[in-house]
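Notebook p. 47: complex prediction with zinc ion.
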Amino acid sequence: MRAGFRGLRLSNTMTRQKEDFVPLDWRDAEIPEAEKRVRMYVCGPTVYDYAHIGNARPMIVFDVLFRLLRHLYGEDHVVYARNITDVDDKINARAARDFPDMPLNDAIRRVTTRTTEQFHTDIAALCCLPPTVEPRATDYVSGHANGHDMVAMIETLIEKGHAYEAGGEVLFDVTSMPDYGSLSKRRLDEQQAGARVAVDSHKRNPGDFVLWKLSDENEPGWGSPWGRGRPGWHIECSVMSEAHLGKTFDIHGGGLDLIFPHHENEIAQSRCAHGTASMAEVWMHNGYVQVEGRKMSKSEGNFITIHDLLHTEKFGGRKWPGEVLRLAMLMTHYREPIDFSVKRLEEAAEELSRLAQKFDYEEILNNWSLRKELELRDFVPGFVEALEDDLNISLALRYVREAVSNVRKSEFGKVTQIIASLEFLGIFRPEIIGVYSTGTLSIGMSPHSALREKNKLLNLRAIAANTSIRDAQFEASSLSNEQLKYFVSERGIVHVEKTEQISELEIQRLVEQRLAFIGDKNWAEADRIRDELAEKGIQLKDSKDPETGERLTTWELKR
Ligand SMILES: Nc1ncnc2c1ncn2[C@@H]1O[C@H](COP(=O)(O)OP(=O)(O)OP(=O)(O)O)[C@@H](O)[C@H]1O
Ligand SMILES: [Zn+2]
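Predicted complex, structure tokens below:
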């Protein structure tokens, strides 16, 4: 087998073919094994508003690819860069609207920080791993330490005759690049002939695009040789991908809508600035999330945010767990369109609970900790091969389904393969395997059962740490001498509650007080204490000491 080929085949928009994937570093015998890297760049969000579920699709698709690359090449051998676009006129408009009394730059900062945090929270709930690096556009406009900045790249493009200044802008001259349009397969002459948009008078060609534009006083701006201004949209990705992945790298991804003009223009900038034959070896594009046949988008107004799906009942009258949303995306091949509907989410939810029914909680807990001990990295048969075929997740899921229907609980190895596969796809959480567990740790419990309960609880904690449950709550630091009730809710949230504040000493004190009342024949007070304790779950038993004949009261916890 060729060096670097691990069986992975990917559809390349550039060649319109499914190709064997051989990362660049593996083609170069000079690079030592330990230093080889697979390098992937994905265009991230423009942070001015909540991300909608359409925006989530590339994040989820390329998260699966990231996981697969890590599995095939080793975790330390994959670099995944996904940017944050925090400079954009839509951001400026939102800042002025939301914080009218604040200086614009502060307001912009507020909007981008708030939106970025929200984005991170949303996609963590969709079980996406953080990328290796997440550069922000504003850190790369000018004066970047290694010279990896937008102003420097634009200067290079002007020097090399690919860009020109006109009408308060710097524009890329598309005719300066003979094979401009190679990704979208749009020929320049066709574009010009068919151009219906009025040609801006200062543009040499209708297809020329903005690299830099001057800013008004009340717009954000950076100093540059062409005056105080801000970058056009495409230049940031050329600059940040070079800064983190080099002049040419392995995979570049994003949604279908980015092929033209965004990716086409990234290619033009990068290749012309660096004098290279390609920017990325493989170009991958996910299909649209659609609503009634039309692309979900903010401008169409036909969108639903990830946040609303997770936390409100706006869509289909219920909240949808992150795994369900994620599975709803993964059920369709990444290049095909998805019609987003309540029905689809219901199907995903049903599929998850079908996968769940087979297992019993106790079993999984035991297997889980064993698996951790053994560091098993084994998946159900056929699973990895299916993913290697251009991310054929539907087929991979079919293998998981088959494994689930054939497995017996005692088949530890197979059960762990199933869990590893579900976990790999990011759809594993305790609740999807039917977990609804409650338990009690209480005073008066036999040491053996207390230990069992305690171990269960610690296992829950381990599960919470190992999956993406971020909201797990553990209030209990000491598990002895307190009655603690814990439960895993349907959403997988682990709560630990103190169900009883009363201490053993206190019970003892009350028992003695009651005996004193009995001695005084004050039955009313004696009964009051008995009822009070019963309310707290403590049952008293009266007996006589067989030797002394003395009245004896013991207590136990009633369930
Ligand atoms: N309906 C959709 N289906 C699939 N991917 C989408 C959809 N809408 C946007 N994307 C992708 O989401 C990523 C983030 O893009 P970005 O933040 O620029 O979205 P956007 O352009 O603001 O969305 P919109 O199209 O709603 O204005 C891009 O890779 C883009 O291709
Ligand atoms: Zn980009």
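Notes: The radius of gyration is 31 Å. The first helix runs from residue 24 to 27.
Next step: compare against the earlier run before touching the bench.
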